[in-house]
Amino acid sequence: MKVKALSAAIAVLSLGGFSQSSFALAPSATINLELNISGATAQDNNLESLVKNNVCQAGTFDKYQYTTVTTDYTAFTCTVNRTKVTGLSGTGAVNVLIRKRSNGGSSQGVVPLLSNLPISQLAIIASGTGACTSAGTNLYNCPTLTTKTSDLGISDVNPELFVGVNTETDNGFTAVDPAQVKSKLTVTPAAALVFGVPVSYNLYKALQIAQGLTAGGACTATVANPNADYTEACLPSLTKSQISGLVSGNISTWDQFTLFDSSTSSYVPLTSFPGVTAPDDNLVHFCKRIGGSGTGAQQYAKFLNTPCTENGLPVASNADTGPQVTDLSGSGDMEKCLDDFSKGTQTAKNYKSPTSVFFDPSQPNDNYLIVNQGAAKSWAFGQQSLEKNLPVASNGNKLAFDYRFIKIDGYAPTLANVFAGKYIDFAESTWQYPKTGLSNDKKTLATYLIKNAATPAVLGAFDVAKANQTFGVSGYLAVAPNTWSDSLDVNNPVLPYTHAANGVLDNCSIPAVPNGSGVVPFK
Q1: For 304-360, how does the pLDDT look when each residue is reduced to its tens digit (9 = 90+)?
Q2: Which of 162, 275, 370, 471 has the most CB atoms lying inside 10 A of its own CB?
Q3: Which long-range contacts (CB under 8 A, 24 or more apart) does 444-451 make?
Q4: C-alpha to C-alpha distances, 95 to 30, 33, 50, nearest whole angstrom
Q5: pLDDT, tens only, 478-503
């Protein structure tokens, strides 16, 4: 790809050039308030829900997506509901444009704010060259990027974790300096998000067979119930130590991955386990997010102690003899990567380093290479948050992609298991904005989004609607109230434990009950 900066003349235009049928807003409407957000891809669904249901007046919401990489660059416009978003200047209608850049992940919600660095965002152009076109009801495809300075950043983990392996070096970023975070940014911990270890469906089925979950026809998908094998009882499990071996690359081929065979009372490689169909190749395939991803950072903290301790394990790197590691810029790429290795298809592209923070992935593929070069059906695993890959009603209730989440140490990735302290893989996000430079209206909107991003009722509504997996409700939980009930309400989920039990968020720490939370009725 020839990386090129677009002319500064490419600007967001008035919405007045669109026809009446194109927009929920009136065709003569102009944008009064613009908020540019960057960072965590895992937070995208929640952010869209927050904007649509909490910021916008009903019937005024429009969504825009980048034509080529729809999950990496999005934007929303609407008329602000001033009864909810109070404190904005003036008294008239406020039409807002909120952009979200997800390309690159969580560090894009930290480093550009520290350095006031303009980065690529979606250009909403009304007419002429590069204009957005209709892609459905209140949905538009936009083919052009522009550059903007971020007003608000979102990170899956606290900013201090973006050092070492979590440093995004592709855009010239350097490791985050905690002192700069403290002096330059207002950082607010938000909700806890459940993460998991997704595996390609062919690996999922192999693990089910090896763990005896298909005996007697149990856990078998059917046409009538395509997700009968994806209930809590049917999820296979890996231990934290097994996952550590995979993420570190210490297990590099699948014949090194052994499980106990009760019929022979011996450990047998998964590739030759009775009843298992071996993959096309023996290499472990790791669909991995690029440096700077919060999704990656939380996995390394949980399973490698990296960068939490000096002697944390390194993250796996690519080797001809295994493992095969694919670097991916977003959660959408993760889904395609796992899907390809299960099906033997070639939809996912491997992220290669651009030379600028502004680049156009639609250009020829010298920056993006096909992941599954041989179109092989291989076994792969990855890293993903739990509001992904739910059943699609229009597709016979099948999952959108050919991968599944697994249990960790025998526990499924559900709100109930996180709440009970049994499922370990969750992280607490942060939202941050510059201490200086934002207008009062931008700060008002930013703080409103931050507050609602941690509100139990808002999170519960999202979880039930957008993270209701076939094995249980997952997604987000508000964190550590002053008092606690011993029962979980999925409509108002509140986690009694926090990585900030001492008052300072550190996702490397062991979640604990915060000081002053009252008596906790442990069961």
Answers
A1: 999 999 999 999 999 999 999 998 888 888 999 999 999 999 999 875 544 433 344
A2: 162
A3: 444/85, 444/87, 444/88, 445/33, 445/35, 445/55, 445/80, 445/85, 445/88, 445/96, 446/35, 446/151, 446/152, 448/54, 448/55, 448/84, 448/85, 449/47, 449/50, 449/51, 449/55, 449/152, 450/188, 450/190
A4: 7, 6, 16
A5: 997 766 667 899 999 999 889 998 88
